[in-house]
Hints:
Helix content: 25-40%
Number of strands: 16
Order of helices and strands: EHEEHHHEEHHEHHHEHEEEHHEEEEHEE
Amino acid sequence: MLKNQPNILLIVTDQQRGDCLGLDPHAHPLQTPHLDHLARSGLHCTRAYAECPSCIPARRSLMTGTAPAANGIVGFQGAEWYPAHTLAGSLAQAGYQTEMIGKMHLHPPRRRFGFDHVQLADATRGQQNDYVEWLQQRHGRHDIDPGMAHGATANGWIGRPHHLPEEQMHSFWCIDRAMDFLKKRDPTAPFFLNISFIDPHPPLTPPAPYYERYIRRDSPAPAVGDWAAGFDAPQKGLHPDAWEIRLPAEELHCARAAYYGMVNFIDDQVGRLCQHARGLLDECLILFVSDHGEMLGDHNLFRKTWPYEASARIPFFARAPRNWGWPTEQVCQTPVGLQDIMPTLLEAAGLDVPATCTGRSLLPVMRGEADGVRDLLHGEHAGRYEYAHGNHFLVDDRWKYVWYSQTGREHLFDLADDPQELRDLARGDAADERLRPWRERLAVVLNDRPEGFVADGALVAGRDHRPIMPDYDPHRTSNFE
């Protein structure tokens, strides 16, 4: 146990791709100097994944240190939840002052899930939203959501500059409130501050200067695998929230420029916080992560829930307090997931990790004592846009195997040689030989699942794969209790 419990800062973005961090080995061309510095100052996990890549299930894993199947939600579905153990609750019980600012996206809304205080803003629109109420007061309009007056949709590909000045946008609002919390916190207790941005989740509307920065730059062409759905030509007339689409080049460029601008804006806001509380944050444990990624046109897809790198891989890094003297420039190239956050932060605080947690503490990796905490990570997502999209994936330090639970479709990618998943190795003469060990490994993972994904040791396609598992209990933290 550590002599002094560290202050803890957890920063969560929404829908940020793992390759949208300047320090990432396969980074997109955008500026994230403050985040890059934090990542280089500690542990940077380059094989980090959302085990269930959409907002609600991802945040359940983060908040309880549990795999999706352990907490009972394996897709995008709101469900009332009263877990016995949460990250914030465990820290609060140990004497931490716990503050949540921004997006929580758990049910029932306004439940604090262990936080002493919550400043809630799950979106840039809607009721029960502290940011929207603040913005309405600023504009003297209570009949509209001023943050959505740009007309872009909250899950779409339309990219344009925001109509509001940056000091009225959600990310700026979060940092303002974080700085106020740090100024007024209880100085006799350690703090746990969770800042949770909505950005870069659509609407893709960064402040105008950030949009202009990237609209003037070339965007990389989308990665389109030899397995992806093809289109004879770019499409027009589809819904602004379409998920399977080939955009005209100019519209894709607008979407990508807006997305990059939003990530850049987040980075500047993190920089603003670091400058405001430099000495305090130097002696703070900082962990940065996103809940999932964004396809952004890769493989002719948009949005999340997909098992592919753009959707499932996330930025993930942690920096220990400087006075601990832990190594810097550590890189973990083995799989980590959102379920690992709670065990990591609790162990750093000198606390016992509840037996309900399926995640693993990353502190041995941060200290330079281990290369990783697991060889293989399982992820999944029940079909969201179409029921047939339900999928499972396995990933290790090199390979990814994907199995669609309803159709039996498979992918196998060599991520070391093919990080953009352009070549599907689940095809050709030797495909069965390559796939057999992966089918067996996934069958072991899914063997006891109540949906019946496995029979006689083999995967069975077409079994029920719903967002809420058949044995779901809202009062149970984990199926492993």
